[in-house]
Amino acid sequence: MELFEWIRLIVGGIFILCGLVVFFTELFGVFRFRYVLNRMHAAAMGDTLGISCCLIGLIIFSGINFTSLKLLLIVIFLWFASPVSSHVLARLEVATNENLSSECSVYEDLETLQADMAADEHDADGKGGAL
Q1: How many Cβ atoms from other residues are within 10 Å of residue 110's Cβ?
Q2: Rounded (10°) CA dihedral 85, 87, 89, 92
Q3: Which segments of the chain have a pLDDT < 50?
Q4: What is the pTM of this model?
Q5: Neighbours of 104 (CB within 10 A)
Q6: Which residues contact 55 (CB under 8 A, 6 or more apart)?
């Protein structure tokens, strides 16, 4: 039984360390990127993945009990809430930023975007394959 406890300790520790690495990568992205949508993307991805890894590590440490169920419900809630809140913040930025075209490409309609994407795909195929 002692071997099982060591395996739980090692696997749980690996998940928590992976979560911390994701958090530090998120911090680097938030402070390094200049544009708000890039920062928000780094923060949202880091929060979702980092918190999930840390909580999964804690679930492994805790074993199978009611506390693990609560932690799992928190992970599931974060998986739903973080992308939704990021999407709302991104839409707010797009709606309120008057100089959005200076930061990124803005397409007025879907047909223009699809034509641009098809042209990019055609150019990539002509140069020896997709990027």
Answers
A1: 8
A2: -140
A3: 129-131
A4: 0.72
A5: 11
A6: 19, 71, 72, 74, 75
